[in-house]
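Hey, can you fold this one?
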Amino acid sequence: MPDLAIEASDRPLRSDQYTYVETHAWWMGTFGRHTHLTEHRLRQWVPARTDREWLLVRELTGAQRWLIGSAEEAADDGFELRDVGPVGRFVARHGRFELDGAADEFGEPPCAPPPPRRGSWQAPTPAFFADLPRDPDELRARLVDENPGNWFGPFAAAVNVLRTALVPASLRTALYGALLGLPDVTRRDGVCDVDGRPCIAVVHDAGRTCTELLIAPEDGQFAGERDTLRTDSRFGLPAGTVISTTAVRTSTVDGLGELPHS
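Sure. Predicted structure:
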């Protein structure tokens, strides 16, 4: 039997440093009878001491791919790119961003600092990570028991946790092992993300969509995901259509807003 284990490692992070997470995404949206993929770029700075201020910068590049309809037809119907999603600079303690409005001129959000979250599969926190077992079989049982839904089942719950890019290496390794023991889940090597970077993929091929969890082979860090329709949709999209794809990179930086050295 081949060894399917995916080992993970963590880079050093001092208490005064930040984890920088950059996401390049194409996410699907609809406007009336029109369906599009829109390009987003997100940059997030997460302090090692998570009670300090986090920074999130969200941008729309203006690039779109129309899956149903066209840019001209949508514009004639009143489509505005700025309505696709929140953009701007957001600051908050514990990562609890208010995305209704960007930070003010002093870089502060228009709200009082929120308390830390308790943590869950839907909204994971460092305390939640610490409470999860590192044994893959125990972790798989907990994933299944606590996430029985069709839309947010065990695989989706694990991906949601990994999507933070903050999961410690011991838990990432255990999560990959837990997922590879689920039905309809396989490992594929040499799968490229939307930026062309080779990744390991843990693939859940069931239901309406095939979901690929992408992993950086060098350190087992979350590297993105891709959702592809397995069947024709009732809205007219054919099987094989990519409806969401991301490429995620992480680094360590010394200051809030600082970019990693290339």
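The longest helix spans residues 136-146. Let me know if you want another pass with a different chain boundary.
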